[in-house]
Design goal:
The chain is mainly beta and about 240 residues long. The chain has 2 domains: about 15-175, Immunoglobulin-like; about 180-240, no CATH class. Helix content is about 5%, strand content about 40%. The strands form 5 sheets. A 5-stranded antiparallel β-sheet has the order 9-10-7-13-14, with no helix packed on it. It has a 5-stranded mixed β-sheet with strand order 16-20-17-18-19, covered by helices on one side. Strands 2-4-11-8 form a 4-stranded antiparallel β-sheet, with no helix packed on it. Strand 13 and strand 14 form a beta hairpin.
């Protein structure tokens, strides 16, 4: 998957900056399953903000451009109350970008609304891998000039020392298909963030277990035969109960 970075042009180089302090653009759907076709919803909780001469003003979102990774296929976007969706394709006819555009007449002026932008696609990513959808949202300031906020940074989960100040790209973890009860999996990579199993009753590997439930964790800790599971190494088999 290609990573494309966007840069926001300064409206007035010496007097104006664009702020990205608002809540993240993200994926509202969870869990998302590998190998399945399902609806994936992009959440846009805020618009763009711009600081001029020390005064920050927030503006309504008018356009959202979302890069589509190769792991999402058979994609169909949904038109919404925000606006209609258009598709951008490469020479091979593969969808590479979805653009939702709001009519200028629907511009609310200020940053007052939260928007949902849904699409339906098949997720062809390997299980327990992250799928990113780099996104840029566009607004217009009071001078009718276009400003933008990029959400395009793709992090390496193993880079714990990263100090990047770029806005993170929306993304989701591709979970394996599950059934109620016990499910047996094999780790394709190092799984060190056990919070990805917070919706499970318990995760078990060998004599170690993990649960987001503090009472269950206390029971594991109270028995000297067992330990709290903190990570799973590549190719290790483990059990998850949902």
């Amino acid at each position: 998957m290609c990573r494309t970075l966007y840069r926001t042009s300064a409206i007035a180089i010496f007097a104006s900056t664009t702020s990205y302090a608002f809540a993240h653009v993200g994926i509202a759907t969870s869990p998302v399953y590998a190998g399945k076709t399902q609806e994936i919803v992009l959440s846009v909780p805020h618009g763009c903000s711009q600081t001029v001469d020390g005064v920050t003003t927030a503006y309504d979102t008018l356009r959202v451009e979302v890069q589509i990774p190769e792991t999402l296929t058979s994609l169909r976007p949904l038109d919404t109350v925000f606006g209609n969706a258009t598709l951008v394709k490469n020479e091979a006819g593969v969808i590479t970008k979805v653009i939702w555009t709001k009519p200028d007449a629907a511009n609310k002026g200020g940053d007052t609304h939260h928007y949902w932008l849904p699409l339906r696609a098949k997720v062809n990513a390997p299980t327990f891998t992250k799928v990113y959808l780099p996104t840029v949202q566009y607004c217009k300031n009071n001078n009718d000039e276009e400003i933008s906020t990029p959400w395009t940074a793709i992090s390496d989960d193993h880079d714990h020392s990263s100090t990047s100040t770029e806005n993170p790209a929306p993304g989701f973890l591709a979970y394996p298909v599950r059934t109620k009860g016990w499910n047996k999996y094999k780790a394709p990579d190092h799984l060190h963030d056990m919070s990805i199993f917070n919706d499970a009753e318990i995760v078990w590997k060998g004599a170690a277990g993990y649960s987001a439930n503090t009472n269950t964790t206390a029971l594991i800790q109270a028995d000297s035969k067992y330990s709290v599971l903190s990570e799973i190494h590549p190719d290790e088999e483990f059990w998850v109960k949902y």
